[in-house]
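Q: A reviewer asked whether we had any structural model of the full assembly, not just the individual parts. We don't, so I'm hoping you can provide one. Inputs are below.
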Amino acid sequence: MSATVGAAWRAVRAGRLGGVVDTVPGPASLLVRFDPLRTTAEAVRLAVEALLPADADPAPGRTHTLAVRYGGTDGPDLDEVAGRLGMRPEAVIRAHQQAHYSVLVTGFMPGFVYLGPLAPSLRLPRREYPRRVVPAGSVAIAEAQTGVYGVQSAGGWWLIGRVEARLFDPRANPPTRFAIGDQVSFQPADHIGM
Amino acid sequence: MDAASVANEFIVLQPGPLTTVQDSGRPGWGAYGVPEGGALDRESFRRANALVGNPPGAPALEFSYRGPTVRWRGRRPVACAVVGDEESVRLVRADEEMYAGFLAGRAHGYMAVPGGISAERVLGGRGTCLSGGFGGHLGRALVAGDVLAIVGAEPGGRAKTGLSVPDEVPAPLRLAALPFGDSDVAARAFRGLTRAAWRVETGDRVGISLTGAKLRLPALGLSQPTCPGAIQVSGDGRPIVLLRDHPTVGGYPVVAVLAQADLDRAAWLRPGQEVRFVATTPDEALGRLRSAAAR
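A: Here is a predicted structure for the entire assembly that you could use as a starting point for your response.
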């Protein structure tokens, strides 16, 4: 689904439709915001339909590999996650970095990257008490998703590691390299020679 | 030294609970989680800029509930406009203080000076994005001791000093809303929204949460993109009106979307204020937007 929305988003964005002020993909839908003083809902609908790719099986986006430092101060919840799942921390790390994830959506807040699906063996409800401060780059899990915080924020997911790479840079265009439909995998930082 | 090299700046003595540099927003980056942002009450923001002879989108200070106190450090006096419950323009001399005071009737006010507050353009806008920590003054709300440079302040400005009083915020405040979704359940929830008497519980730049009744809308399986003016229904059945710093995607179902012409008015709301929602149509909403744009 995210690959389909991603392809539709890229096509509509590339169409540079007059009067359209923003295009925002979600996990299963695409928002096209327009200025009603410059165009009409009907004109936007027709133009968007004409731009939507006919390909039912769209090409995946880019592939990213992120180096993660798991556990310790970078992933302060790793031990508790392991305890709740009845696994050893090493097994949590292995299960998390063996999977290949799709970018389901970027957003809710700047640079946050939602990834899925998370291995069923790693699924937990969100933390009961959200943290007031989650550092930028934190790698987190909750329910069927894993994600990376692009900027420092509050957050209720379980923090298992942190990436060194800067994921969100408002002075770059685009501000993050991740887009819906991209593929992401994680590797322990020491395996990449950081 | 020539006049241009003389410091034209404000020293923040007391910032108020939440004061940020804002402009007319940076739409277009929702796909990366960046909200449109910008002044919540665009009309008051434009008036503040107009009072000191600025173009409509010049960066100005937006304050919530209580305005900042600043000291002017410049060789010549500067005109300083404040638009809140009242509109005023004052000439502030070197080393004098400007105090914007408390707001009684609405949540947000604006302070503008000729030329505008200096702020780097980031992602197409100069306003503060609090969730992203960028834009405006150092990507954050003002704190005591901050120094705000004024862009090429034309000291004195073209403004005439004076005071006027804009319309009072009516109680209850009536906001026009369009139904969202076409199921029977959505239609029932929308009727519930337009029938109940609501009261503001909390509010900030992200949104306003209301109490008064419980709306029933099934939870979303997957989250969906959101926009300013979308009215979500939280898990406990309360409406949340999203404002311009809204999260770009949300997991709560949406019951209605405000008429765009009422987005500024929604930003007036303070805790305790009464709100009613009135059903409108796309044509009617567009008509009101056109007449607002023509003013």
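A: Points you may want to mention in the reply: The interface with chain B takes residues 9, 13, 21-31, 33, 36-37, 41, 105-112, 150-153, 168, 170-171, 173-176, 179-180 of chain A (CB under 8 Å). The first helix of chain A runs from residue 2 to 14.
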